[in-house]
Design a protein that fits this description.
about 475 residues; alpha+beta; 19 helices; about 15% strand; zinc ion binding; zinc-finger
Amino acid sequence: MCPRVAENKEATSRWVSSVLKSLIQSNPKGKGKFFKNELQERYAVKVGSQTVYRAKRIVLENLKSNHAKAYAKIRKYGNVIRVMNPGSDVFVALNPNVVSVNPTFFRFYLSFKACKIGFKNSCRPLIGVDGCHLTGQFGGVLLSATALDEDSGIVPIALCIYESETTESWTWFLRLLRESLEWEEGRPICFISDRQKGGLAAISKERPEASNRYCFRHLIANFIATFKNHNINGKFWHAARVANCGCFDEAMAAIRSENAKAADWMMSEPVERWARHGFDPRIKSDHITNNMSECFNSCIKDERDKPVLQLLEHFRRRIMVRFCEKWEEVEKFKDSITPYAKEMLDTNEKEARKLQVIHGRGEWYEIVDKYGKKFLVSVADVMCDCGMWQMSGLPCMHAIAMFMYRREFAQDYVHWYYSKEAMKLTYNGTINPIPDESRAQTNDCSTSTVPPTHAIADVCSQMGSHPKP
């Protein structure tokens, strides 16, 4: 019997590129030895370095071609979105500094009508903005604007693809976002971000009337990088979470007694941007982290290396299905408030049963906890000393204790932002599908768009130097 031979002349570079295509695409800078070992482990086949090199070249050249073809069609794609989803905002900016036969892609902005109207009509006016890097052939950054619905789920408002995070590119995105929303003058609005480069300056320029919040998770990460002190983290989180000035001062005094420099470092940042007690109560959101943007980024993480049209189609399909599913979900609600609001009330009610209520004849009620600490609650002013009721729009444990004393339902005092009615308005719009490229009917007769000039690296640099024979 002949012994098995690992080397096989039929294992050409074309065959290797077909069986290792996905692996090479996900590891474009992988070493040849890595792919040779994978090939031997999967198929018990040995190939030379030259074969692996040529296989990588085939895969990456095809990948580059796919990315380039996607940018060539992006203006036509935007026109199809406008036709199938009237009222949606799509803008494709071309690079004025690049001279070529065909125009060069620069930036892309998209905001579906259903998303922007849903947010404007009924969501809390808090917008999370964040950017994540695209890892495809031509790089770039994807910036998103995301809000929270009445059940604390995410509502994407707009996204933008552009060259890099600069004040100018942020300003371009926020200007288009402002024009899309057509926000009424005097109506409160707030942005929460990770303090990205150029982002704060752009917000101040385009939305000078808006309040700003910093994601406290990123702020504390900067603190750790500066002080290398993990033991004091919990105390800072406590200080950021308390919703009244007195408790905040107590928390910071305790931190200062332990580490004055750490307290000074944190207080050097504007308190109203990271501490809950300093937030604008009209926003009706007590969020101190930008989790909404993190959730959005996690939804597209597997598409960040794909051609741009594949990424955009993934986004469109996800929110198209989400709007439909959420509408059907809301129709089944049995309460007048959302499940999230109901869950928060149930949690606070358990704690409210441990509190003592003292009342005379006026609108003010005195609530005493088991430690003897008292809080004043007013129905007429919709406020509690702890600050959480007016900050979040959901009755806190002290307010619920008062309602139990008055034999009233706390649910009747939940802010409209958490109602079934509001959530129906959020998801009232429809995002329509778009036809196949071969059947798309548009009036677009524009020339193809050349990919952006900010490519991550060319194929040869991704493959490394040519292997020696």
